[in-house]
Amino acid sequence: MNILIKSATIIDSKSEFHNTTQDLLIEKGVITKISNSIENPKNYKEISLENLHISQGWFDSSVSFGEPGYEERETIQNGLKTAALSGFTTVAVNANSNPVIDSNADITFINSKANNHAVSLLPIGALTVASKGEHLAELYDMNTAGAVAFYDYKKPIDNPNLMKIALQYASNFDGLVCSFPQENKISGNGVMNENITSTRLGLKGIPALAEELQVSRDLFLLEYTGGKLHIPTISTATSVNLIKEAKKKKLDVTCSVAIHNLYFADAVLTDFDTNYKVLPPLRTQSDIDALIEGVKDGTIDMVTTDHNPIDIEEKKIEFDHANYGTIGLESAFGALQTIFTTKKTIDVLTKGKARFGVETAPIAVGNAANIALFNPDAKYTFSKKDILSKSKNAMFENESLKGTVYGIIANNQAVLK
Prior knowledge:
It is built from 12 helices and 18 strands. Helix 2 (104-113) packs parallel to helix 3 (139-145). With 417 residues, the protein is of the alpha/beta class.
């Protein structure tokens, strides 16, 4: 693949060309020249787009594609295409398929489905067999097949001894254990944040305490066992403080927050729109403020779309019975840009790679091209025409966003709108 990118503003704090506008020559997938102006004598394909900006390719630590078993929700191929056109060059894919990804053969299958794609797929293996929370899955065997972490997606590990053993065992091969932050006995049959809004709507609530107890428990277990722990998608102010204190103790812990938990408060549920039904639930504005501050000061290590396609039959039903989840790849950049500066948005979209074993390289001559292309200033209302996923359960539909994505160049391929 040979491409000449014209007049691109580079946003990459690790690059000597940061905050400058340059032409980039990419030959056979490698950046061979960066200059104010580059001629095109070999008649390479030129990319010249309105207000073009580029950065290192983005990373998402939690996406779900459904395949195998839930192809009606999403397939791996279309999911990867959606990720590419949303600016992501690497995605970590959850194990919540049917069957659950919990063996060496399953990891090999997932990897084979993503071969030769511009987007790199990182498989996450289930932490327990069939994600039932009873027995540890084949962690080491999955690790040797390429699993980057172990996580029973959205399913808490109720047995603290099982989590203790998981942390101890995985530390033998530097494995990353993920633990969903919810205490099920406290959350009970709740379907949204326990607050004045849930009382007004007559919906059962999930207290912030349910998350905070689990986070606290897991941090105690981590302190006791050692190992590596990642807490996906925290949602409360107290969780931020708990993780901040754990990091002061030098515990090996990271965490993420879903973009929608930085954007929406639970008050949006007034109309019982099931697209807003997610787990963890949307919380209060004070929680949002604390989460945003946690992203800014580095307590929260990464943001995620927590992209989870759900078919219409499981969303267009009563709120109590609807499935949890929203798609979020397509709206990620535009939503983050309404919260943070462009520089900070790019920073949080490229953080977290090292935690999941992804090598990074600045935009520089001699490095492989792994870049996102975007216009940070375009303002628009997110609508159905912007949805690229097979499922259409988009929480951000009808929201005013800032910033559009043109696509990516990665793995010696270009995927552009």
